[in-house]
Design brief:
Chain lengths: 113, 115
């Protein structure tokens, strides 16, 4: 089955710096790669996703890149702000309609002002 | 997300007790999921259901059972709770009409402590 590895497990940056979180997946058939943000005391919430027919997607300060050959995808946050501090999860799922998401173990991002 | 509610939000119980966690959604989604979250281990899938008559085991189903009472309700049971089931439990839903790209919407979580 699918296995998703996520690095780093913790990341500390200064406000205004960029942050990058990387994930690798094992199943070459996976074709959907979402990123979730979990704030303290809340459930995870989707912030951006990418499908395997796209190499890069951007939404304001966040972007995701996908390298299908290497089977890895990354989350990029630019101009970080204290409110970006949270736990971020990557995930992957396969092409079949009945495939569930497999999550990475999460990255705790701390943005200090 | 207020569209996905979980009850109770916190529960403390003793080893050997039967516990039921409930999830309700008003999003009209066909698919529902139960995850547990442990520090450093991320979100692990326990069970999932793609419609009322469909139940599937996830990666860590041992010690758990589920019931899909209706499209909007999906409950998780611990038949005989043990301390290593102490965790944060999340329910999630997704829309089958989205095809394979199943954005999931999570509830606020239930913090379960087994003494």
């Amino acid at each position: 089955g699918e296995n998703v590895e996520q690095h780093p497990s913790t990341l500390s940056v200064q406000e205004g710096d960029s942050a990058v979180i990387k994930c690798t997946y094992s199943d070459s058939a996976s074709n959907y790669f979402p990123w979730y943000k979990q704030e303290l005391g809340k459930g995870p919430q989707l912030i951006i996703d990418i499908r395997s027919n796209v190499g890069e997607k951007k939404d304001q300060r966040i972007a995701v890149t996908l390298n299908k050959t290497a089977k890895h995808f990354s989350l990029h946050i630019t101009e970080t702000q204290p409110e970006d501090s949270a736990v971020y999860f990557c995930a992957a799922s396969g092409p079949q309609a009945g495939t569930a998401l497999i999550f990475g173990k999460g990255t705790t991002l701390s943005v200090s002002s | 997300d207020a569209d996905v509610t979980q009850t109770p939000r916190n529960r403390i119980t003793k080893t050997g007790k039967r516990i039921m966690l409930e999830c309700s959604q008003t999003k009209g989604h066909d698919r529902m999921y139960w995850y547990r979250q442990d520090p450093g281990l991320g979100l692990r899938l326990i069970y999932y259901s793609f419609d009322v008559k469909d139940i599937n085991k996830g990666e860590i189903s041992d010690g758990y059972s589920v019931s899909r009472q209706a499209q909007a309700k999906f409950s998780l049971s611990l038949e005989s709770a043990i301390p290593n089931q102490t965790a944060l439990y999340f329910c999630a839903t997704s829309d089958a009409l989205a095809g394979g790209y199943n954005e999931q919407f999570f509830g606020p979580g239930t913090r379960l402590t087994v003494l």
